[in-house]
## 1
Amino acid sequence: MTSTNQDLVKLTIDGVPVEVPKGTLLVEAAKTVKQEIPVYCYHTKLGPAGLCRVCLVEIEGTPKLQIACNTPVAEGMVVHTASEKAHAGRGMVLELLLVNHPLDCPICDKGGECDLQDYAMAYGRGNSDVADPKLSKPKGVDLGPTIVLDEERCVVCQRCVRFDDIIADERQLIVKDRGHNDIIATATGAPYRHHFTGNVTEICPVGALTSKTYRFKSRPWDLRRTQTTCTQCPVGCQQFSDVRHGTVLRTMSVEHDDRYSDSWLCDRGRYNIGFYTSPERITQPLYRRDSSFVQIGWDDAFTLWARAIKGAAGNAGAIGGGRLLNEEALLLQQVFRAIGVRNLDWRGGRQQQASPGARGGDYAALERANVIAVAGASSPAELAPVMWLRVLKAKRAGAQILHLSATGAAATLARIDSGSRVAIVWDGVDLELGKILADAAGRLDAVTYIASEQPNARGAEAMGMLPIDGGMDAGLMFDAGRNGKLAALSLFGVNPLRNAGDVDLVRAALNTTPFVMVSELFMTQTAQLATLVLPAKGAFEKSGTTINVTGDLLPVNASLEAPVGPLSDLEMLIGLAQQFDLTLPTVEELDAAVITRAQHAFAGSFGDALYHSGATRAHALEPRTLWDGGGTSAHDDHVRSVLHA
Amino acid sequence: MPVTKVLTAGIGEANLRDINVYRERGGYKQWERAVRELTPQNVLEACDKSGLRGRGGAGFPTGRKWSFLPKDVYPRYLVCNCDEAEPGTFKDHMLLEETPHLVLEGILLGAYGINCHHAYIYIRGEFKRGYEIFMQALAEARAAGLVGKNLFGKGFDLEVTVHRGAGAYICGEETALLNSLEGKRGEPRLKPPFPAVAGLYGMPTVVNNVETLAYLVPILERGPEWFAAVGTERSKGYKIISISGHVQKPGNYEVPLGTPVRELIEIAGGLRPGRKLMAVQPGGGSSAAIFEEHLDYPYDYESMAKAGSMLGSGAFTVFDDTTDFVKAALNMVRFYAHESCGQCTPCREGGHWLERVLHRFVESRGLSSDLDMIRRVGHEITGINLCPLGDSIEPFLLSVFNRFPDQFEARILKEPLPA
């Protein structure tokens, strides 16, 4: 026998012989024979708690029913998950759970996707022996900014409490009081508030914890579900967008998304979805006349925009990409290059670098680290929240978390044992700090990560949204703009007036530059100083790809119809390209180019000279157009239909 | 009469709270001898050989419990369970208040037996007097060089920490006790892992009852054979029985295990004149009632199990013919429903449900359908709980429900409930 075989345990579940690794819990082992064992308190990511007692199974040779969630497999074990005895035991537990559970399913948000409903149907009795009134507990408890709690519906599985402790490392939620009086509450009575609160509504097996944004909004069967990649930060969480009547009502995590989200979402990714239907949204191109904006049509907008760029005669620039999809960033770069603009950059904010280079790791490697050094002014917990959960997971497994200051980084890193499994997380802002980190990373053989402030910074970088052939980077462009040396500036999904390191410089540049185009969903600080504002589509309204922190190319799938008016940045770029009579790529050509570029890994490290302002650009120039073939373009047709609708 | 004075020797005769009195009577000699002359292994072997079983309720062989500790994993802890809260039990706090040095010496010997350097005693919150007395005793012992560093110059360190609970019955369950001791919510832990592997602060831990540890002193003094010679085949030695209920002289009586049930009632002065025995609850609130046909059963672990009940902590409650068993059953069920930590479903929901139904019976508002429900639910919530508390709701209830069905049937509502 090989060692692998020795680590496997043979047992029989419902008559089917199975072999699973030693230590596997019965509840997981049963899944190998496609047998679902009902659970409330057990959760794959939280482990067993042994509280609800609904996962009872019969094990031959053991007189009492056993809980599958905390019983590890044993050699020769014979398990019956669906025997009459197991069924009766579960039936009793269900009957007990329903003694005080309100039968308000018709008005409960969980109705239709409720584990209590499902298992009551499977195991419960049709009638009830309960002759006494049900217990009355607080309903509609305002737990915090995001969550409402119905104590009567709670089955005290403590998943929320354990999530708050084990996963979020917050320990705000507790069980209060005792016995049948116990309720869920925050320990201090303060509002329940942190980056990950919404997850408790998903792991709640009943309708006790509900999101304020989704309460009484819909039935699950009325929702149209689309799986996509969250684009609110660079983590790359897979999520479901659930849409009804043209409105995204909620987003949900994707089970088994172990590679990216680990099945959790942050509150930003979950709740920051209301803006799509905001009345504040820009729906028509706006052109500045003196001190106010007038609404204009798309044809005029493209004409004005193209005229300004033509008039600038190469003295134009474009900034954007970190908030665009890869296809848009690539087309942005290619179109501007084709019309003779070399001043391109994605870095409209503070961040200067996106790809960590050759030492970049995946989340599994981050989780395995036993020393995690966090460097930079911005916390990864803010920039990439769900990635921070991996750090907390490593911490729980015993990893040491070091918060490096810019001045003390070298000294702190020097003290790390060379035998450690080190991960370094940086915000990509201070390149000098980046070099110090890169030195340490080399010495310690560390895996490295850049938690970006822009969700697709890595994609923008990979798609080549960087200065071309001696062109200016964002900082130099703003500098030139302030000095009246820039004639036209196009800004795509960036708000430098809020996010740049030097906002005074940006303001001066925007005020002085004769023509500033801003593509945006809302009138941001930057848009208010624009000459031309183009209404853009949001991430749920367009399809494409994005590249996350770990360098993976991930799909973004449209789940919403955009309102009439806004175009995607891709469609805007196609409109602009038409003004210059450029040949556009087909969808297939664009996709192939994105994939090629995404696969081309940056081989450098943190703080490489490539990223220093004013330094020689090491980029080999791309051919003038990527697509020589001409041919018909699906995008072209699509845009034409939009423009002339 | 089989009443013997081993742990109870001197109580009521001498001021055993005074360390000098205790020492004059031979106190702390075994502790000194253990540290000076014996190895921890010697103490463990003596404990094992004596046949001593846990006096807190479960009756698990103490020596075997100690032997489950993984070798060479340190620190490890001994925790003395003085959270005595089983209905009908009142022996541990008597020992704590009357002979605190004996309790302490037992803890010291137990700690030495498992080779640990930090022992804890978890004292039920209500035992304020006992706590104060024990603190005084501990201070005296420390001043006398019996607790602390480098004891008797032999290089053995042993610290004892006293922790007061807050009065929750569930904290007498060893893992709930450990949670409470760590400052967490007092609720039982999921097992495995067991405390012997991962107990207090995640380290190997033995939790022993006060009486169990106290018996280590006479066992070392007189030898394990002396202890093992008393009692029955598998229930060795002596036991303090807390006799209460309808007897003329309720109190704590120390007897050899195996003393017949009938004799225990006689020891406690017998029934009141003219009264008839109806039932005995032989092992605390968690035990099923036994009846007159069991009067000649020896009071030991095996015989009580054979009678359908258990010896438990040795709380022996007698019920005569003045008892309203519906009220008695409600009283017990209400206790468990009130003390349920609420973690697991059967205990949290089942206990409360039964309590409400029984409450209606006491008010003569029972329903005939409730009779089936009591039998069915009582039976089915047993054996599927996270800890033994949930399994303790049913035994007394069903034993008296089955024995005295007429008392329950008499409380059924004649008219149907208004809709």
## 2
Amino acid sequence: MNPYSNLPDHHFWRRSVSNKARHEFDPVVSVKFTVGAQDRVATAGSCFAQHISRRLSDQGFDYFVTEAGESLSPGERKRLNFGVFSARYGNIYTARQLWQLFDEAFNGRERAERAWRRPDGRFVDPYRPTVEPDGFADTGAVEEARRHHLERVRALFEQADVFVFTLGLTEAWLSKRDGSVFPLPPGVVADSFDESRHGFANFSVAEVEQDLRRFLDTLKSVNPNIRTLLTVSPVPLLATYEPRNVLVATTYSKSVLRVAAETIACDHEWVDYFPSYEIITGSFNGGMYYDDDGREVTRLGVDHVMRVFLNRYVLGVQPQSQARIMEAVAAAPEVPMIVCDEEAIAALSK
Amino acid sequence: MRRWAVILNCVTPGFVNCLSVLNPGTTVEGYTIWQFQTEFARLSTELKNFDCIFLYDDILALNLIDFSQFDNVVQVPLITFSGYHPDHCFVSSEAALLNSPIGVGNSMIAFAAFKKSLSVADTLALYNRRTFEAGAFFDLWQQDKLRLFQRFVKDGYDLAGKFRRWSMRDSFMYTIHHPKIDCIYDIAVIASERAGARPVTTSLRPHDNLSSGPIFAIYDEIAEALGIERSSFFSPGQYKMIGLEQFILASFEIYRAQKPESLVIHPIYERRYSAIYDFI
């Protein structure tokens, strides 16, 4: 007898990983809540969250979108990035960016930098610089669009039943004047980098945890029934500003996010951690869930994530027990040997 | 120089090539079970001259010859696996198995639809998740995995780890009877050891001769559930690929040429076939 003697299979690598075929791997042990067909499911986060958004939508969920560009044609909606996420906030890479958006929408947080000029003379919103490909005519138009956006963000957080947030990374560029973070560094799409105005941050576990706590506590106060699912994006950093290899920087970033997500989920009974990160990055899949560039997630990987998500959070499916499978095997007759072609049939029928 | 004989089914050429690659200096001669039966008189005498005979225990069970007279028989596990092709079935007419457009493998859904006099278009629409669930198609992979493992254990082959690798990147079967060359190679390694040899494993694999044989389609929903790329074409062989609609159309033509009352599903498929028939 030892402390591991009577533990279930998921505690052991051999039983829950080595003995499973790739597609059978399911790291979810239990779920804190399930998602019903009528639940309004909202999403936000990094690039990987876009996969989740698309699949939820494709699979008939009530994918909750409060900023859908209803007056536009389907083609224009797509071109103008409506419906990519539940509101038109673009990629939200960091927990700080999420809290900042929420703080602005509900508490009127002020921003020091309000519009950036592009090289073509058009203007963009520094906090979602790519959602409007054509840019805005002037700073007033940027402000007007943002007012509308924040109103839709409020509606989203007040009315969603389930909020799925994918934590992307820990590195960010920020305004030295008020600490606001930007999803893209100044100078990439618009404005230009100015050392006196802009700084770099790489958040710690404590900082990410603090941002998540502030966001979740306030979210709960405006929407007491909401449930939240945290995931960590398995997509490596495209670039790091840290003086180290981008893979090493990725490991730091994802480790911080994973620890923060774990801590937060442990502290909140209405917040769960969904291990899509482990499904994509786990050695069990032999690297099959990354594309040739070793960064983009393949369709097979997204399929696997969504299969586990649907089985566990939507359908409430439990993995079939070995005993049940054995019963089925015993009950079903075995396929006979050799029947391959006419010659075989003739031979066997003698 | 060692001389080995192989008596298996369609796997024979691939198995012979694998043994040859793995065991330099060994002459390996292969006979399919049908060749063996055809040339029974000559081969049953000839077998005495081989240092080792590789065959399925299913062939032993046929009692074609008293193999107990040989102390150099190495049993090889037969691989049949329906997990990727749960729609595959055998159909009989006049007590003989009836070939589909790709050979002996018929589609259970197409046959049930034909029996219910459905059109090709209506039959095509049946190839979806709901029908697959009705036929318990999604359960078959795990069941057949266990069944295969039981066979490996019975034959004394430790292939559980290899199985995981076979299923890692793609389907390891072309049809329910035709494994890909990696499976055959891994079995040949253990079989060589059991024959007392010391196989030399390298990255070299013989050509996969069964790849130009019949191929049964892997439907999209099945592929998605099994985490592999979709492969929705059938083939009668020689890489002539045919789509599902064409397969159904040709299957119906074959069924129509038979006496309707003579067409029956093979008994081993009765349970799943009935579930689909009732569902349609």
